[in-house]
Amino acid sequence: MGAYMYNGSAAKCQLVFQDLKQEATCTPTIVTYNILISVFGRLMLVDHMEETLREIKEMNLSPNLSTYNNLIAGYITAWMWDNMEKTYMIMKADAVKPDLITHLLMLRGYAHSGKLAKMEQIYELVKDHVNNKEMSSIRAMICAYCRSSVSNRIEKIEELLLLIPENEYRPWLNVLLICLYANEDLLEQMESLISEAFKHNTSVRTTKIMGCIVSSYFRNDAVDKLANFVKQAESAGWKLCRSLYHSKMVMYSSQRRLAEMEMVLDEMNQVNFYFSKKTFWLLYNAYSQWGQKSKLEQVLGMMCKHGYAIPSNACSS
Asked: Could you give the CA distance from residue 254 to residue 208 in angstroms, rounded to a whole number?
């Protein structure tokens, strides 16, 4: 049964269990039922897991530490946070003392469910062990803080990051932290993590993450930093999006760096981004703002050629 459990073969595990029940010389014990609970929990067969628990009670067997740990693990796998916590409370009420495994499970469960106060309480119970041996738990806690809105989440995250060795680099965590720092407009930290991502050949392939990075540069009016990032992203094969180039155009325009703004058009051609209606509107606004009448007329002609609406104030311009 144990071999089938570790290989996820629930059906075969159950068949062996049925054979065991038919034996005249031996009967299932709590250990046997614990194996069933574990295999059902791993496969998120919660109904089967709970039915096995009912059978334990019908057999007048007492759930032990392994029973509760397997139940808690099953509920965590199924993301059933209320059932997880309820089982933990029943366990303590039944005078079954939680062990390290229990606390590590609850730490992970509270982290995934975003219950930070309870997560921190459990963390204090197993802090020494977690800090030295449970990097997966540390990462789960970092993710929990990233998803939260607590005022001191940056400080808490950075304290936890110090515990993770360099050889424990995880691309997904790196990208998550890039977005965190981008949303907080902490450019120095964001760029440090971006450099780390390039160093480890981490590839970002989603427009949402790229938009998050660009928005941070835009809010900080850091066009030169954005331009450098775009070059690196192009070389590293990151997901390119038109907003990268449009943001550069707007920022160059705001600083009256029109020649550099026009060079962005060449960059867009090189990466096969056609000029959209918004591209022409950005050019129109830039030339209109800085009184570039001849270039303004050229843009209006191009807009007309592509069938885009002419701005209502074009005549007065």
From this structure: 25
> Rounded to whole angstroms, how far apart are CA atoms 53 and 225?
59
pLDDT digits (tens, 9 = 90+) for 194-206: 999 999 999 999 9
Tens-place pLDDT, residues 145-170: 999 999 999 999 999 999 999 999 99
Mean pLDDT value of segment 54-63: 94
Task: Give Rg (Cα) of the chain.
Answer: 29
Ordered DSSP codes for 63-98: P-HHHHHHHHHHHHHTT-HHHHHHHHHHHHHTT---
Nearest to 285 by CA among 249, 236, 245: 249
Question: What pTM does this model have?
Answer: 0.88
Torsion over CA: 181, 184, 185, 188 (sign):
negative
**Cβ within 8 Å of residue 56, ≥6 positions away:** 30, 33, 63, 67
**Residue with tokens 């495994």, as numbered in its chain:** 101
The burial class, CB within 10 Å (0-12 / 13-18 / 19+), for 262 is middle
189: tokens are 């930290």
Please, which residues have CB within 8 angstroms of residue 122's CB and are 6 or more apart in sequence? 103, 106, 107, 110
How many residues does the structure list for the chain?
317
Per the listing, tokens 């701005």 go with 311
* Burial (CB count <10 Å: 0-12, 13-18, 19+), residue 293: exposed
Which residues, 6 or more positions from 96, have their beta carbon under 8 angstroms from its beta carbon?
Answer: 63, 64, 65, 68
CA dihedral 93, 95, 99, 102 (to 10 degrees): -30
Q: Outline where the chain has alpha helix (H).
A: 2-6, 10-22, 30-42, 46-58, 65-77, 81-93, 100-113, 116-133, 135-147, 153-161, 171-183, 187-199, 207-219, 223-236, 242-254, 258-270, 277-289, 293-305
